[in-house]
Design goal:
Layout (H helix, E strand, L loop, with lengths): L4 E5 L9 E7 L12 E6 L2 E7 L14 H10 L4 E10 L9 E3 L2 E5 L24 H13 L4 E2 L3 E5 L7 H7 L5 E3 L2 H10 L3 E11 L9 H23 L21
Parallel strand pairs: 1-4, 1-5, 5-11, 6-8, 7-9, 9-10
Antiparallel strand pairs: 2-3, 3-4, 5-10, 6-11
């Protein structure tokens, strides 16, 4: 199997009832091992590759995920498009817990990650003015609307280093610039862009960040995520067969052509 579509997310995203595993592939990469074996199979008749971002048992915290190995491995398998479900906190009153955000911009507040494949003799300065695949995001927005899901068709994601949550002062600062906050989008999305892959982020809001004077804790995040994961899973399953085989309606396959050296 040579799946064109990859999903990077938590184990709750795939359901054995709708995701039939055909193979489990362990890969080594020039950047070390990916977070886990890649599960290759079919969801509603569409071939996909699934990779657990944090590894089986959630063993890798956000700042220790080998993002370069994950993206390289999926690209090596032939994946051209990545769907990335994730959990986030809300920085705005109108972005409610339980809602989905199809992210269209990000702000990077991480501090010490491996951000690029081009850190050797060759340097490429890619544009991230539009970080996400507009075609993919539009398809998911249309399907979410048809399914009457609670969602936002756009939103700015501020990515912090983690694994700690923000202070109240930080959270109040971030509110001036972003709508949601998380720990895993960067550098995952920009590495996918360097690899000329289409990438879309489906962010589930699990809580209000601490600006709202409501303590953020892991138990609350997990509870809301478990209640919302079925909607995300159903959205992915419903959209997969609407994703074209060819990539001639977006600029993602031509990212490096416009990059300076």
């Amino acid at each position: 199997m040579a799946p064109r579509i990859g999903i990077i997310g938590g184990t709750g995203v795939y359901d054995p009832e709708i995701f039939e595993i055909k193979d489990k592939i362990a890969l080594s990469t020039p950047y070390g091992a990916p977070s886990d074996r890649i599960l290759v199979g079919e969801m509603d008749g569409v071939e996909i590759a699934f990779l657990s971002r944090h590894g089986s048992g959630h063993v890798y915290p956000p700042h220790r995920i080998n993002y370069r190995a994950n993206i390289w491995a999926l690209k090596h398998l032939g994946v051209e498009r990545i769907i990335s479900p994730c959990a986030v906190g809300s920085l705005q009153e109108e972005y409610h817990p339980g809602e989905l955000v199809i992210v269209d911009q990000f702000i990077d507040f991480t501090k010490g990650r491996d951000y690029t494949f081009f850190d050797g003799a060759k340097t490429m300065h890619i544009s991230t003015a539009e970080p996400f695949c507009k075609e993919m995001s539009s398809l998911f927005a249309s399907e979410a609307r048809r399914m009457d899901l609670p969602f936002h068709g756009s939103g700015t994601y501020v990515c912090i280093e983690g694994p700690r949550f923000s202070t109240k002062a930080e959270s109040r600062m971030f509110r001036n610039f972003a709508d949601i906050i998380g720990m895993t989008l960067v550098p995952e999305c920009q590495l996918a862009k360097e690899a000329e892959m289409c990438y879309t982020s489906l962010a589930t809001i699990t809580d209000y960040d601490v600006w709202a004077d409501k303590p953020v804790d892991t138990a609350t995040v997990l509870k809301t995520m478990s209640e919302s994961v079925e909607r995300v899973r159903n959205l992915i399953a419903a959209t997969l067969d609407k994703i074209p085989e060819t990539r001639d309606r977006c600029e993602c396959p031509h990212t490096l052509e416009a990059a300076g050296t």
